């Protein structure tokens, strides 16, 4: 019987995996230091319900990153007065309800009740209710959690002034107090050697201040095998004193400009110079060459060493160094702030800083904002008491990152201790004028409002309604997608009666996602991410959710990836939060429907990019992801290539070919490529085992083929000293000369590789391995006796590989394949045995090609993709994307910003650059055209292809010779059916050629044509954008 059992991973199978990412980025010593910290997260509720957001964001980010290890976190929530709860209780309740994703399954249906009566008993009850909310949010995440809720109308009465209270913490995060109010608190923190992080969000402006004391010691790199560690290939060593070595960046994730004078490097693996292997040297001078190489002078006398052989080149690894950072107290920073290096986007940092300080001092005295006469000061004053969810998400991510630095002792704190960000460019000119005219005596519009009141105040009610009635698609619900979804909910995207929100991600939720995708819970395991996301949002009680049976669209709807192009739906904007290259190309969709796109990508786990695409305003998004090195697997130079090789081998052998074989058994007439049929023949006939011993022989043979035979064949074809036609060595830094691995029973990695492969092979064919089966003894017999069957299989395989004329389809038909054959394709890619196999296979491949071997936690973390949530990157990047959303919804023609976050270089961690303008090309009868320009054809009725050809002749003097849509050819002048195709309606023809019903308003048709006047072939003709009136598109009419 055919069976494909699904295995749900158990908790013990993932033991230790979440903390792997922490170790990768903060080192084992950094993680140990983090576990010893006691953290206080404070926030003041004073102006609006949004005041609670910054504290919740920081707490969420800290719990997500610390969740895998022991942590001691205390929450101090201070409420300015009882009137705050009465005036802002509704919005506060909505925010708490939205953050209910922090609750465990059993708590999600427990609604929050905030009373509205004005008496002391109810206010005390409300304090307890807020305390209960925080305990339920964070106490279940592990570690020790305490919550204090206090009424405090002045900083002098705050528990932060209690010397006994604050002295019990090692890190203090204070939020929404003005820096002017924190002078005394800062002095107490410095007196008790407490690291202090102060965050403040005021409308469109946010700031972070750090004070880690007079002598904060931090390291710049984690474990030497970390993804962030810098190592370089040694290209040349000059025979001089001092020696000059030429280096090329080896760690694809690292930055070649991270090596500086005074740094210490370790030279390893230089086989032609064994005398200096593992030795440490100081960089005396570092020069960067035009070809991205480095020329480094080191304190080494190479004149007495053997000559350097570039074929056997080794590595130069930068040694982690400690730096002492001397921070100033807040009083000195306020007196003389250095703002040049501490801003992400502020155009006038000094004015913004002065505005925040002036208004904070005025508010402290008069309990209202001043009426001012300077534009920036007036904007800050008009929005001072408002809080945007996006600004809170951004500042909360930055503050959480600084807390991680303080807790671990890794990476440089923010420059000059002070960071400012403003989003003034997100507000249109008319709304800015309206804001600055608003009188300071006006009643706070956020009072008695919802969590959207601040947004409506800052951007205007009309813009807020456009946001609510917008139609949006969010593609991919990873760690970044979860943050986007949370922010969009806080903004009310698609929440109006005419709005809609679509989510698309066909990947299924598994146990590994529960630690990095904060939206998902255990009950979601097995569902697709889109289905789980829709179910989560529909449960938010404060939102009006319409029944799916209603004509009004639901707030959020799951959509399959395969249906994105085929299904009839219309959106105003798309957010593509895929960390890697998207499976869906949205550019045709965006051009066809003139839809904007917000796209985030991740480059090798440490560099994140945000790109904004707006029709007629910006150019196409650039491919900022380094090409996946799948085409370099034969001769790798990087550990990541060896990892990809191991994953590809496993997926091919135990999933792809097995699933295809099952498909063939069920349906022998299925269309399968010739190459795959050969592997199906191997699985079903040629190498199909009859017992466990044959499974073990196959596993032993795979070691021989992968690490010995194939490598020896490579060496025979390309010898060590092979010279190319241009006179250079064939083997070099970019092509590592390999070495053969001979199986050794005393080598634990060799033995473990074979044993793991044996277990997977047995599982594939449904064999149970009894405890009485002595695997090691059997393996010894196979290895020592040189079993003839093993080598006969290898020789048979080699002979079969040489026969290109073998018809495997015919062989499969002639074979007696039982219809009840049992195969179990592997599906559990978070099991510890799978992770261990990938690790072992990777380091053996690295050993083959003399590559730096990564540590186990690096392999596991790279496989489990948890970087964004660990470093709060997803919180920061999604906030920047949502700020661009505000600009798109208002129809801006400029002021857009792409963004880059690079965790390998603190000084350039945040950068923003304007997107490029559309590329311009020429077109007949038009002066210029861009990618966004199309030839729009709308005749108000469905027309035939011949009508379209005639229109192009009459209006543009162009004769169409060929046309296509997508990958399907619609018409060609040389086909036999050209006359028949010309007579068909376009919608019908597209359906016949693509086998897909037309579901959009428009069809994009690419054309090849020539000019009827000059008779020249025309290049770069814009596509035809045909308005469709047939098929499924009629639903749009």
Automatic annotation (TrEMBL):
GO terms for molecular function: ubiquitin activating enzyme activity. It holds the Pfam family E1_UFD. InterPro entries: ThiF/MoeB/HesA, ThiF_NAD_FAD-bd, Ub-activating_enz_E1_C, UBA_E1_C_sf, UBA_E1_SCCH, Ubi_acti_E1_SCCH, Ubiquitin-activating_enz, UBQ/SUMO-activ_enz_E1-like. Keywords: Ligase. Pathway: Protein modification; protein ubiquitination. It comes from the Eukaryota. One of its GO terms (cellular component) is cytoplasm. It comes from Naegleria fowleri (Brain eating amoeba). Belongs to the ubiquitin-activating E1 family. GO terms for biological process: DNA damage response; ubiquitin-dependent protein catabolic process. Residues 907-1024 form the Ubiquitin-activating enzyme E1 C-terminal domain. SUPFAM superfamilies: Activating enzymes of the ubiquitin-like proteins (SSF69572). This is Ubiquitin-activating enzyme E1 C-terminal domain-containing protein.
């Amino acid at each position: 019987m055919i069976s494909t059992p699904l295995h749900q991973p158990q908790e013990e199978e993932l033991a230790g995996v979440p903390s792997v990412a922490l170790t990768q980025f903060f080192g084992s010593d950094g993680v140990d230091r983090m576990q010893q910290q006691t953290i206080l997260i404070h926030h003041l509720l004073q102006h609006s319900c949004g005041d609670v957001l910054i504290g919740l964001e920081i707490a969420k980010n800290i719990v997500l990153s610390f969740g895998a290890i022991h942590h001691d976190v205390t929450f101090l929530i201070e409420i300015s007065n009882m009137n705050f709860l009465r005036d802002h209780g509704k919005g506060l309740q909505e925010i708490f309800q939205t953050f209910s994703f922090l609750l465990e399954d059993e708590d999600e249906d427990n609604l929050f009740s905030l009373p509205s009566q004005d008496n002391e008993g109810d206010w005390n009850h409300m304090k307890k209710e807020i305390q209960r909310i925080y305990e339920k949010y964070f106490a279940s995440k592990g570690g020790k959690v305490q919550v204090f809720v206090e009424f405090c109308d002045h900083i002098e009465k705050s528990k932060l002034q209690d010397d006994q209270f604050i002295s019990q913490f090692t890190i203090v995060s204070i939020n929404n107090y003005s820096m002017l109010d924190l002078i005394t608190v800062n002095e107490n923190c410095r007196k008790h050697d407490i690291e202090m992080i102060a965050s403040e969000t005021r409308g469109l402006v946010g700031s972070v201040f750090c004070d880690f004391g007079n002598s904060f010691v931090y390291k710049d790199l984690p474990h030497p095998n970390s993804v962030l560690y810098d190592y370089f290939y040694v290209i040349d060593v000059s025979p001089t004193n001092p020696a000059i070595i030429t280096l090329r960046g080896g760690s694809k994730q690292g930055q070649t400009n991270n090596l500086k004078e005074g740094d210490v490097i370790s030279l390893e693996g230089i086989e032609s110079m064994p005398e200096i292997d593992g030795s440490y040297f100081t960089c005396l001078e570092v020069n960067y060459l035009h070809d991205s190489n480095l020329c480094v002078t080191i304190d080494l006398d190479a004149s007495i060493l053997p000559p350097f052989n570039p074929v056997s080149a080794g590595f130069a690894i930068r040694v982690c160094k400690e730096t002492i950072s001397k921070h100033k107290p807040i009083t000195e920073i306020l007196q003389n702030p250095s703002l040049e290096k501490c801003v992400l986007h502020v155009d006038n940092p000094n004015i913004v800083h002065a505005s925040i300080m002036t208004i904070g001092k005025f508010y402290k005295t008069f309990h209202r904002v001043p009426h001012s006469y300077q534009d920036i000061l007036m904007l800050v004053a008009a929005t001072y008491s408002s809080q945007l969810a996006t600004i809170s998400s951004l500042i909360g991510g930055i503050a959480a990152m600084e807390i991680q630095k303080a807790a671990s002792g890794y990476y440089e704190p923010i420059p000059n201790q002070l960071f400012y960000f403003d989003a003034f460019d997100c507000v249109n000119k008319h709304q800015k004028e309206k804001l600055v005219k608003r009188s300071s005596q006006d009643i706070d519009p956020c009072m008695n409002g919802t969590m959207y009141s601040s947004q409506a105040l800052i951007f205007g009610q009309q813009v807020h309604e456009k946001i609510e009635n917008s139609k949006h698609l969010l593609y991919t619900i990873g760690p970044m997608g979860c943050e986007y979804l949370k922010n969009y909910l806080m903004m009310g995207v698609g929440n109006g009666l005419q709005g809609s929100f679509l989510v698309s991600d066909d990947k299924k939720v598994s146990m590994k996602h529960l630690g990095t995708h904060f939206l998902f819970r255990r009950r979601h395991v097995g569902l697709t991410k889109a289905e789980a996301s829709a179910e989560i949002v529909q449960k938010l009680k404060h939102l009006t959710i319409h029944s799916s049976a209603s004509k009004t669209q639901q707030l959020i709807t799951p959509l399959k990836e395969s249906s994105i192009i085929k299904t009839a739906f219309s959106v105003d904007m798309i957010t593509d939060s895929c960390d890697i290259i998207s499976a869906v190309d949205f550019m045709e969709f965006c051009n066809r429907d003139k839809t904007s796109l917000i796209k985030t990508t991740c480059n090798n786990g440490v560099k994140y990019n945000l790109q904004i695409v707006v029709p007629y305003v910006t150019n196409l998004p650039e491919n900022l992801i380094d090409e996946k090195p799948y085409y370099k697997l034969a001769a790798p130079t990087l550990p990541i290539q060896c990892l990809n090789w191991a994953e590809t081998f496993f997926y091919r052998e135990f999933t792809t070919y097995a699933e295809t074989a099952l498909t063939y058994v069920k349906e022998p007439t299925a269309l399968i490529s010739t190459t795959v049929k050969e592997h199906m023949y191997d699985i079903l006939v040629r190498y199909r085992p009859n017992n466990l011993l044959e499974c073990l022989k196959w596993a032993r043979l795979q070691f021989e083929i992968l690490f010995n035979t194939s490598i020896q064949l490579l060496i025979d074809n390309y010898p060590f000293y092979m010279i190319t036609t241009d006179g250079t060595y064939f083997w070099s830094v970019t092509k590592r000369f390999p070495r053969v691995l001979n199986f050794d029973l005393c080598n634990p990695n060799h033995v473990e590789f074979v044993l793991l492969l044996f277990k997977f092979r047995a599982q594939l064919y449904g064999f149970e391995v009894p405890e009485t089966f002595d695997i090691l003894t059997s393996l010894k017999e196979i290895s020592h006796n040189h079993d003839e069957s093993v080598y006969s299989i290898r020789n048979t395989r080699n002979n079969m590989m040489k026969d290109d004329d073998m018809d495997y389809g015919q062989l499969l038909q002639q074979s007696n394949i039982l219809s009840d054959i049992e195969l179990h394709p592997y599906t559990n890619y978070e099991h510890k045995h799978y992770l261990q196999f990938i690790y072992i296979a990777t380091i053996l491949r690295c050993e083959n090609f003399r590559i730096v071997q990564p540590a186990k936690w690096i392999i596991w973390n790279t496989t489990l993709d948890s970087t964004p949530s660990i470093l709060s990157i997803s919180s920061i990047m999604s906030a920047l994307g949502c700020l661009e959303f505000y600009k798109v919804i208002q129809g801006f023609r400029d002021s857009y910003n792409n963004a880059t976050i690079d965790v390998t270089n603190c000084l350039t961690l945040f950068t923003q650059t304007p997107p490029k303008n559309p590329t311009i090309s020429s077109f007949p009868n038009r002066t210029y055209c861009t990618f966004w320009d199309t030839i729009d054809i709308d005749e108000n009725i469905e027309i035939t292809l011949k009508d379209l050809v005639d229109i192009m002749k009459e209006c543009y003097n162009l004769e169409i010779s060929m046309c296509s849509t997508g990958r399907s050819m619609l018409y060609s002048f040389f086909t036999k059916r050209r006359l028949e195709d010309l007579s068909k309606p376009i919608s019908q023809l597209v359906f016949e050629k693509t086998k897909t019903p037309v579901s959009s308003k428009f069809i994009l048709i690419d054309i090849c044509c020539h000019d009827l006047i000059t008779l020249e072939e025309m290049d770069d003709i814009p596509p035809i954008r045909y308005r469709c009136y047939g098929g499924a598109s009629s639903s749009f009419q």
